[in-house]
Specification:
The complex is a heterodimer. By secondary structure, chain A is an alpha/beta fold. Chain A has a single domain, classed as P-loop containing nucleotide triphosphate hydrolases (Rossmann fold, 3-Layer(aba) Sandwich). Helix content of chain A is 34%, strand content 20%. In chain A, helix 5 links the parallel strand 5 and strand 6. Chain A is globular, with a radius of gyration of 16 Å. Chain B is mostly helical. Chain B folds into two domains: 60 residues, no CATH class; 200 residues, no CATH class. Chain B is built from nine helices and no strands. The longest helix of chain B is centred in the C-terminal third of the chain and has 33 residues. Chain B is globular, with a radius of gyration of 22 Å. Classes of the chains: A alpha/beta, B mainly alpha. Chains A and B meet through helix 2, strand 4 and helix 4 of A and helix 6 of B.
Chain lengths: 180, 265
Amino acid sequence: MQGGEAVAVTGASGAGKSLVLRGLADLIPNEGEMSLAGVNRSNMSGPEWRRLVTYVAATPGWWAERVKDHFSDLAQAKELAVGFLLPEDIFANPVAQLSTGEQQRLVLIRALVQGPKVLLLDEPTSGLDGKATARVEKRLDKFLQEGGSILFVTHDGAQAKRLAKRCLQIADGHIEERVL
Amino acid sequence: MTLISLSYWDIAFAASLLVINAALSIFLQLGVHRQLVISAVRMVVQLTLIGFVLLKLFGLVSPLWTGITAIAMVSFAAYEIMSRQERRFQGVWAFGLGAGPMLFAAGLVTVFSLMTQIGADPWYHPRFSLPLFGMILGNTMTGISLGLNTLIANTLRERNAIEAQIALGHTRVEALGPVIRQAMRTGFIPIINAMAASGIVSLPGMMTGQILAGVEPGEAVKFQILIMFLIGGATGIGVTIAVLAGAYRLTDERHRLRLDRLKQV
């Protein structure tokens, strides 16, 4: 993948799309060589690799009670939240009060503020309305322009076309590349 | 003080209490009468056998046979821990995570006590070492069993939270920290409760046994306090090792969460 490039991953449910992303993030044992900007994955520790190649799961996970305790850079997170149409005071709330759509945007912000080089996004906008989706896509576009790369799973063909020029279609254990 | 010797009739008469229980279970359709009878029979057979074994061992005073008996006790305890786990590790880890820490913790504390406070001669004399080891082992087993159960159950429950942290580049220690601490706390609860309640809510079995056998209450109490400290020490060592080793096994050197190392249900 090139810096600044986005690639869509499509395929039926259960075809193994998430598995591919999780493998790339080194979250599950996998074989195959991977390198980022010339540095081989095996020369980095797992956490080092994942800070650069960050996977955002479709099911959000929270480990503290308050929203604000999940962000390495709260000031930047607040800025991004406004852009994502989230209420400003959301960071003071308990996680249990968040809606699905809010959680989805917040976990993306959580990954973005760490400054990764590659984002692996598992259905990043599945719970969002059109307006919020547009805002998220706009920010992802900016991430690409700054030289980042995105691999994202989507069931939305239009979204795949908006963000990516290439698409990986997964079916029956095969990966097929298509130009969008 | 005279030692009260029990006749077989005395014991059989006491067993009638369990018969009443079994009758109640049938009458109230509780469905526990089978288990009740089986475990009662097991208890009688196991204790009778250990009585003979101890008699034999006390005559031998052999370090080898005392050691073999201790290992056998650890094996039974490890099997017990394994079968109490709702979700257990695959392969030898299911057994080893119980057996290893138990053997180390209970063994260390027993030897420590035999060589210092008890001062038995020889130090491994089975009359002292085996009952002491047994009491320490039984309590360590409960702690480790609870600790491991909590570790695995909470890791599964908090799976999304843990994986989210790992995906963001947190280390396995950071990601599993809260779960590890909770598991250790849970492992400590039985001994904390036992210490807090002893003397008020419960009169510990060993102490009452000594008193019934004619020992002065003051001496029996001192002995019981010693045992409580030994149990506390062994539980702490055992739970810590077992939970940390379990957490180590639930993750790998690349800081991945390895739930695939648990036995599938």
